[in-house]
């Protein structure tokens, strides 16, 4: 087996073997671009090392052969002679992965070669600084020494020298530091810093291999579901130096603006510096265009290379380069990250340029990006200066009065005020406050913190982990890095897309993309809208999946239609039992005997009929799937504990009577209780009242010249017998309405598949169902055995942090568990009934990755909230375009 | 296709085609026994009729041919001539089925043939009574006329004649009744009673076919899971008459005593009567032995036939026969029902006689019968006279003071009194009272009524539907048929095995079978115990499944061992957190910071260690599977509502603090919340404390010379990552204990499979598990999406009544749903890890039908409550004996 590839041997399609970095270095070499020579040790070698704890037998010789070749080509020897060759050792897995060892520069420097480097570079300080950096970086990452030990000595050296920055330390100071660093190495490892250049290199390679199984890397892989057995490659590359004087420098460049997508020259340049310095931000970079003035030849060469790369990769590339004494070297390239708006613009530009075809254009944008473009944003954000920046945890833009505890949030919100809940971190006790607030800001915690997870679940704007902001809950104030104090009631604005936090109110404007979907902006309103319009049109043409809306009212249905919804996939009738009608529902529940119960149902009938008539009118000509009442009855009554306390204190007679009913209906686990079809089978007349309302509404619409297309859906079916009984009753009612009105109503009757048992016996159930709609919310709850309400706040945070979940299974369908049931039910259902219509109406219907799953298992449609319809349309189109993934 | 079989053509193995009745009539004919000639129309004909609504084309001619043959053999014509042939038409499906039309006798009688019959029999009254019976029976069952219309006329005739019974009605009165009956037929159907004998027969056959889809028959099939497409056969048989004088008669006989199983002559005889009269109970039967005196020849012939039948069927047979003027005719035989004790005795007797082999003997008894033998019974029942009899709904024997409402039951039980809850019927509001009572008695409802279902779920004695008892809840009294009044506080005794109800206390004695299992009675204590011992020994030799116990204490473990348990399959540690230790648990839950939490855990550690040490001692040498803490923490705290009310009224400071914790831990659906492995991952130190206690207890036992074999089981795992983390922690703790104590502990670590997701991803989970134990209680809850506590009381009754369930899925495993997941998990788990140990510890582990299922899917063991161990052993042995079913 071949374990080492010269840069001249590989290419960009060998990412599995050479990692992303190595494959792209090889590709650039192959294109004849100026890449410093080097070679890549393959992931095969890493896997062999991880398995056995040792490098493969042949690796050492193979590396020697490649190193020899490199030395011959460069005319220099690694760490030896008058002009010693130095190399960098860089990790590079197939997927970029935080937590793995990254890079060791300057390998080859020793007590001996440091002098040669100084002489060769004509710069004593540069050579000792390079050696200091090597020992520090090698000590920390290869030898595992606490980095703070080195930092402390540098601090001390600066103090002693009376200077502010490392750059001001003299060569002598640096030489002394090297001596101290070497003592640290001896103290920590029991032996001296390796003086054999080849040993330095071998140890660094081995450390990269071992870092694959570092704790953070493993956690990251668990979260991102990256297989554990890929391993990482290691690239060994001849060093070039951007810090050899004013004719040297280093920079990053993009072939297009990654923020807007517009074409042009974008990037930053720092003269007389190494890449490390750019990252450290000690000196300010200049815009890349400045390079033209500093070094016109290198600039022209860079522009030429950027064009070569973009035409070769057919996409925005980002590039790292170094100029060593007037000679341009390419250190890295990859397809560059970009903002959502840029992604849409670039895809359409490349399509217009004829560089990519339409399906490829669809692959270049994601539903996640489209969703970002649909959030409102701050209109004048550029005019404001953020007081801090945190993690963009849940998108949107929100302004409101700062409050520092849940109770205050609830109280002020109840008084009509818009509030932002500010906490160091949140916990389950903050839930009420989070619900009441416009947005949530925390100073601690990452993307998987409680605040972030819960806010995303609620669709609420959240910035978390804004560590430069000091939150003092007791004193009810927030202090910024520059000492500005925001007290309770002061207005804050937070941007959930960028993570920025502003003092005062920043006006919010709606998204132009939403205005386009709403029909209030033309498809060519601006170039972003035009790009979105173009790609949505392509997606609609490609997709096999229909897209319907979860909509309970005529207003929602009308919006869904504007957003491209092709019907209602889920109308939840329970919402029609709330508000003014609560009293009727209470009468139904408290009914003493059949007559009272029927009177309550009779009173509800015309109200329900009215609801459905409006809904069918809004969706005229398109299917409307109405789910019969799902939740348990006690949801329509007061809370048991609250009412018990009230009765104990006030002894009100009506309350006491109510309490008896609440107690009777009380369930330990209402999610697993008397609800859905069970309720329909136990409460006589309830479902038939609803069926009658639907049928009469359809007949009324028909009489008015409309084209109503209702479909009736039975919730929570576990066994076909339940469905058979309800179906018989419903058919009798529909036949009765047809007889009375003379209308020929053809109303399909189907069922939710939202219990494991329904999925497991789908073949039987299909015998009595015209359609299935997968209720993946409930299915996720029962397959995992946890209720969303109870657990998102309690242990999901810990689970995400421990990497047990990569993403909440309520956000993206759990393909291994829940998904396998869906797949089996689709197969069994279609086998039993080839014309069975299949859809999904859980919230997963609007989630990009889940949409791909539903496409793949062959559903007919997804149904989601009206606002998610464009995302679902786009992803459904992308799913039909082979090779599109949901991550950019 | 052949649709009609002469009795001479069929045999007992053709039950699918000829039904049970037809097949056995053919078998007796084949054996040369005196069966009246006849033929059977097949289930194929019935299925064709049900499918098309018409008899198959060829059926009429085929019936004609067989009828001709019958007439030729008898030398008589159906309903014609001087000596008209009469026939009976009887339904007979593969399984006996209430709700189907049963029998029409005397077909062939018309206005004309009634006279010939009178002349031939020499008995005018007999002829007119037979005709009256035909019109009445035919009118009701074939023509669907309300039977009350006929009864009313008979009542009136009796009144007019001034007689008490039908038998006293004269021939003239009966002739007049026939005229009136014929008028009823005309009024109800618009045409006269058919005078064509063949038409009578054809209509009766068609009515039998149609009765297959009668409402009650369909309900019964749904409940008993009998396929809907079997259809019924119809037997047409020449009539013989037992009511032609003192030398005629009718009777039933058993080849052994169905009550005790003892050999001898058992049965009843009624001279000068038809079968109908025996059922109606108008005259008292005499013991069968009396027949010897009345008709020695027939008696001898009957004994000979009984011996033939028993030697042929190799089992207890029950027989219906008629003697017509000194000639014995066999009308029916089948393998007879018997009591549990009889089943055991008979199986061993037949085995001893060499009639059946050992595996067949095992097939002849069931775990359900064994369970009946293990309930305590009334010692002197025979000395008491029941005041009423109801349905034996839930076995056992109970005595106590009669109470008529739940609150009184709770109050009296709390005061230490034993009570029997008496209600017309129960509903969910009676739950507390049912829990408090020794037994439940209702006057309404059947085996699927609320009282029956809930009592069986609780394992509580219950007699329901004792309709002769009048329950007046308002007046707090029960009135028997003879007017005896039982008031509140008066002692009642109920026998859940027989359904009998007694006034006063009947002493209860333990079962001798239980004494045998306990070791306090010798294996030959009595002939029943000897039979049980013999068959248990056979079962243990045959079975592949191991049988363990669900036992939480050393006492339970010791009993389990006596009952034949081969280890503990489930030790629930939550019980160890109750009682005196509640306070420590409260400290753990209310802990403010790590130190307090650790202090609470440290205090619990030695207590847990002590528990385990005792348990391992009791099960020395056998495996003990300990499940780490499963329930949510709030189960160890007071109820939220109760505490809220108390705090609102009393403002106690400690309570207020407690309320905060209860609120924090409160979950809407605790079953779907923070429990099991989730709790272990979120509460630091909890699981490791338990693991340490187990390991230290094992080390202590090892040091004391014992052989502890603990296994640690992680509850509620949904994904392998959870298991991996807990496993890593547990292994570290065990290694630490090994290091400290020097004991080499080899403790397998496994998981419950009790969530659908665990079953669906069993292949992954097996990678980190040494064993699986299927938790089929929770699996049933999540697969069906209902919680046992909530739904058994609310909708299970309705579901059983509507036939949605045949049996509660918590009693017998739902093979189609839950079972399919178990099967898939077994396959995937073993594929991933061939040495994976597989067991089940849900309550299904002791249910006969479920044990067969677990045997069939290939588990290694079942675990059940100690008391169910003998049942599981027996059924495991029977399951290994091909062809054994769980119903007798």
UniProtKB/TrEMBL annotation, chains A, B:
<feature type="binding site">
    <location>
        <position position="572"/>
    </location>
    <ligand>
        <name>substrate</name>
    </ligand>
</feature>
<feature type="binding site">
    <location>
        <position position="778"/>
    </location>
    <ligand>
        <name>substrate</name>
    </ligand>
</feature>
<feature type="binding site">
    <location>
        <position position="777"/>
    </location>
    <ligand>
        <name>substrate</name>
    </ligand>
</feature>
<feature type="binding site">
    <location>
        <position position="775"/>
    </location>
    <ligand>
        <name>substrate</name>
    </ligand>
</feature>
<dbReference type="Pfam" id="PF02896">
    <property type="entry name" value="PEP-utilizers_C"/>
</dbReference>
<feature type="binding site">
    <location>
        <position position="778"/>
    </location>
    <ligand>
        <name>Mg(2+)</name>
    </ligand>
</feature>
<dbReference type="GO" id="GO:0050242">
    <property type="term" value="F:pyruvate, phosphate dikinase activity"/>
</dbReference>
<feature type="binding site">
    <location>
        <position position="627"/>
    </location>
    <ligand>
        <name>substrate</name>
    </ligand>
</feature>
<dbReference type="InterPro" id="IPR036637">
    <property type="entry name" value="Phosphohistidine_dom_sf"/>
</dbReference>
<dbReference type="GO" id="GO:0005524">
    <property type="term" value="F:ATP binding"/>
</dbReference>
<protein>
    <recommendedName>
        <fullName>Pyruvate, phosphate dikinase</fullName>
        <ecNumber>2.7.9.1</ecNumber>
    </recommendedName>
</protein>
<dbReference type="GO" id="GO:0016301">
    <property type="term" value="F:kinase activity"/>
</dbReference>
<dbReference type="InterPro" id="IPR000121">
    <property type="entry name" value="PEP_util_C"/>
</dbReference>
<keyword id="KW-0479">Metal-binding</keyword>
<keyword id="KW-0808">Transferase</keyword>
<dbReference type="InterPro" id="IPR002192">
    <property type="entry name" value="PPDK_AMP/ATP-bd"/>
</dbReference>
<dbReference type="InterPro" id="IPR013815">
    <property type="entry name" value="ATP_grasp_subdomain_1"/>
</dbReference>
<comment type="similarity">
    <text>Belongs to the PEP-utilizing enzyme family.</text>
</comment>
<dbReference type="InterPro" id="IPR018274">
    <property type="entry name" value="PEP_util_AS"/>
</dbReference>
<dbReference type="InterPro" id="IPR010121">
    <property type="entry name" value="Pyruvate_phosphate_dikinase"/>
</dbReference>
<keyword id="KW-0547">Nucleotide-binding</keyword>
<feature type="domain" description="Pyruvate phosphate dikinase AMP/ATP-binding">
    <location>
        <begin position="292"/>
        <end position="342"/>
    </location>
</feature>
<dbReference type="InterPro" id="IPR015813">
    <property type="entry name" value="Pyrv/PenolPyrv_kinase-like_dom"/>
</dbReference>
<feature type="active site" description="Tele-phosphohistidine intermediate">
    <location>
        <position position="450"/>
    </location>
</feature>
<feature type="domain" description="PEP-utilising enzyme C-terminal">
    <location>
        <begin position="531"/>
        <end position="877"/>
    </location>
</feature>
<dbReference type="GO" id="GO:0046872">
    <property type="term" value="F:metal ion binding"/>
</dbReference>
<feature type="binding site">
    <location>
        <position position="754"/>
    </location>
    <ligand>
        <name>substrate</name>
    </ligand>
</feature>
<dbReference type="Pfam" id="PF00391">
    <property type="entry name" value="PEP-utilizers"/>
</dbReference>
<feature type="binding site">
    <location>
        <position position="776"/>
    </location>
    <ligand>
        <name>substrate</name>
    </ligand>
</feature>
<keyword id="KW-0067">ATP-binding</keyword>
<dbReference type="Pfam" id="PF01326">
    <property type="entry name" value="PPDK_N"/>
</dbReference>
<dbReference type="InterPro" id="IPR008279">
    <property type="entry name" value="PEP-util_enz_mobile_dom"/>
</dbReference>
<keyword id="KW-0460">Magnesium</keyword>
<feature type="domain" description="PEP-utilising enzyme mobile">
    <location>
        <begin position="417"/>
        <end position="499"/>
    </location>
</feature>
<feature type="active site" description="Proton donor">
    <location>
        <position position="841"/>
    </location>
</feature>
<dbReference type="InterPro" id="IPR040442">
    <property type="entry name" value="Pyrv_kinase-like_dom_sf"/>
</dbReference>
<feature type="binding site">
    <location>
        <position position="754"/>
    </location>
    <ligand>
        <name>Mg(2+)</name>
    </ligand>
</feature>
<keyword id="KW-0670">Pyruvate</keyword>
<feature type="domain" description="Pyruvate phosphate dikinase AMP/ATP-binding">
    <location>
        <begin position="56"/>
        <end position="284"/>
    </location>
</feature>
<keyword id="KW-0418">Kinase</keyword>
């Amino acid at each position: 087996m071949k374990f080492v590839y010269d840069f001249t041997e590989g290419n960009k399609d060998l990412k599995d073997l050479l990692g992303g970095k190595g494959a792209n270095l090889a590709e650039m070499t192959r294109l004849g671009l100026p890449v410093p020579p080097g070679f890549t040790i393959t992931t095969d070698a890493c896997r062999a090392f991880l398995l056995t704890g040792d490098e493969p037998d042949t690796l050492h010789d193979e590396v020697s052969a490649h190193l020899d070749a490199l030395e011959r080509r460069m005319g220099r020897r690694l760490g030896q002679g008058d002009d010693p060759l130095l190399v960098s050792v860089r990790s590079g897995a197939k997927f970029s992965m935080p937590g793995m060892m990254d890079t060791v520069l300057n390998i080859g420097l020793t007590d001996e070669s440091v002098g040669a480097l100084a002489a060769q570079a004509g710069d004593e300080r540069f050579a000792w600084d390079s050696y200091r950096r090597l020992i520090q970086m090698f000590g920390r990452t290869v030898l595992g020494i606490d980095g703070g030990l080195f930092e402390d000595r540098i601090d001390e050296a600066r103090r002693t020298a009376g200077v502010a920055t490392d750059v001001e330390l003299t060569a002598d100071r640096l030489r002394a530091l090297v001596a101290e660093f070497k003592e640290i190495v001896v103290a920590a490892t029991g032996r001296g810093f390796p003086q054999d250049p080849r040993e330095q290199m071998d140890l660094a390679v081995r450390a990269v291999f071992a870092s694959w199984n570092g704790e953070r890397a493993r956690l990251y892989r668990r979260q991102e579901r990256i297989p554990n057995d890929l391993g990482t490659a290691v690239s060994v590359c001849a060093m070039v130096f951007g810090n050899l004087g004013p004719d040297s420098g280093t920079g990053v460049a993009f072939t297009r603006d990654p923020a807007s997508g517009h074409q042009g020259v974008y990037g930053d340049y720092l003269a007389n510096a190494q890449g490390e310095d750019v990252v450290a931000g000690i000196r300010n970079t200049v815009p890349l265009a400045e390079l033209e003035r500093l070094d016109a030849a290198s600039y022209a060469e860079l522009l030429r290379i950027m064009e070569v790369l973009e035409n070769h990769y057919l996409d925005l590339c980002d590039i790292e380069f170094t100029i060593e004494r007037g000679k341009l070297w390419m250190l890295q390239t990859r397809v560059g990250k970009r903002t959502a708006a840029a992604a849409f613009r670039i895809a359409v530009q490349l399509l217009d340029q004829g560089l990519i075809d339409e399906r490829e254009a669809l692959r270049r944008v994601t539903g996640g990006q489209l969703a970002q473009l649909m959030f409102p944003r701050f209109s004048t954000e550029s005019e404001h200066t953020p007081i801090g920046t945190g993690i963009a945890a849940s998108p949107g833009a929100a302004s409101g009065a700062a409050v520092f505890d849940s109770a205050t949030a609830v109280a002020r919100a109840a008084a009509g005020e818009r509030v932002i809940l500010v906490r160091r971190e949140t916990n389950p006790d903050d839930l009420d406050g989070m619900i009441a607030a416009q947005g949530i800001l925390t100073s601690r915690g990452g993307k998987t913190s409680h605040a972030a997870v819960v806010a995303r679940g609620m669709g609420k704007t959240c910035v978390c982990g804004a560590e430069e902001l000091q939150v003092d809950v007791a004193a009810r104030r927030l202090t910024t890095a520059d000492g500005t104090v925001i007290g309770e009631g002061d207005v804050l604005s937070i941007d959930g897309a960028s993570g920025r936090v502003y003092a005062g109110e920043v006006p919010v404007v709606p998204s132009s993309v939403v205005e386009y979907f709403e029909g209030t902006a033309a498809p060519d309103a601006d170039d972003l809208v035009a790009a979105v319009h173009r790609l949505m049109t392509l997606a609609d043409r490609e997709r096999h999946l229909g897209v319907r809306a979860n909509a309970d009212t005529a207003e929602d249905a009308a919006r869904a239609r504007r957003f491209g919804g092709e019907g209602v996939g889920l109308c939840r009738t329970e919402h029609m039992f709330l508000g003014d009608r609560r009293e009727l529902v209470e009468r139904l529940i408290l009914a003493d005997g059949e007559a009272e119960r029927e009177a309550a149902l009779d009173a509800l009938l015309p109200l329900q009929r009215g609801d459905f008539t409006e809904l069918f009118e809004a969706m005229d000509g398109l299917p409307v799937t109405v789910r019969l009442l799902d939740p348990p009855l006690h949801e329509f009554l007061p809370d048991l504990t609250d009412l018990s306390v009230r009765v104990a204190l006030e002894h009100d007679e009506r309350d006491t009577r109510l309490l008896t009913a609440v107690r009777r209906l009380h369930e330990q686990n209402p999610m697993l209780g008397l609800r859905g079809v069970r309720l329909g089978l136990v409460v006589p007349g309830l479902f038939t009242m609803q069926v009658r309302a639907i049928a009469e509404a359809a007949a009324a619409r028909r009489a008015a010249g409309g084209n109503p297309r209702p479909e009736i859906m039975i919730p929570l079916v576990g066994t076909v017998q339940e469905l058979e009984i309800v179906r018989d009753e419903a058919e009798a009612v529909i036949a009765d309405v047809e007889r009375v009105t003379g209308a020929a109503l053809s109303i399909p009757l189907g069922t939710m598949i939202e219990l494991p048992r329904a999925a497991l016996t789908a073949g039987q159930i299909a015998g009595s169902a015209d359609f299935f709609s997968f209720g993946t919310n409930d299915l996720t709850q029962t397959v995992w055995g946890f209720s969303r309400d109870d657990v998102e706040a309690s242990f999901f945070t810990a689970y995400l942090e421990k990497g047990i979940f990569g993403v909440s299974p309520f956000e993206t369908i759990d393909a291994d568990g829940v998904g396998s049931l869906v797949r089996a039910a689709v197969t069994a259902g279609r086998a039993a009934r080839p014309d069975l219509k299949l859809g999904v109406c859980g919230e997963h219907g609007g989630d990009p990755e889940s949409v791909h799953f539903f496409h793949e298992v062959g559903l007919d449609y997804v149904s989601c909230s009206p606002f998610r319809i464009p995302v679902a349309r786009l992803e459904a189109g992308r799913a039909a375009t082979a090779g599109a993934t949901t991550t950019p």
